[in-house]
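Bug #77: duplicate submission created two jobs. Keeping one. Sequence:
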Amino acid sequence: MAEANWYVVHTYSGYENKVKANIEKTIENRHLEEEILEVRVPMQDVVEVKNGAKKTVSKKLFPGYVLINMVMNDDTWYVVRNTRGVTGFVGPGSKPVPLSEAEMKPLGIKVENISVDFKEGDSIAVVAGVWKDTVGIVQRMDFGKQTATINVEMFGRETPVEISFAEVRKM
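Kept job's structure:
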């Protein structure tokens, strides 16, 4: 399988979140989870002062652009390019150019892979994040996203929860 890279997609201004939602829906419908790994609208927290009151607001870092972590092939290119609101990939002509590691670093996108000592069926403990101190059995592992899915009991029933490899340890 080819390697996934981050690509920048140009959208109509103000349609970034709608494009993200449409691409995620298409990924689900066409079962492209292994080829289009993540869609992101980069945000930053900005402090605004209105009427003398400070307020923290999330604003788009790059209005009119969406970042996509995907394996570039004819199918994925077609799906993304023909999503409503997308005007094209960033790159010369019609050839998309992946972001380099230096370009991804200031965006907070980590490239390093975390090696883990557990596998599906193993019992793990969550050591950080929202689900801290939760114990569960690994149902599924996604090495592309660096996450493990465990079942957690909520409201009296088992619910699958996706947790970062960095937040868990083997029991």
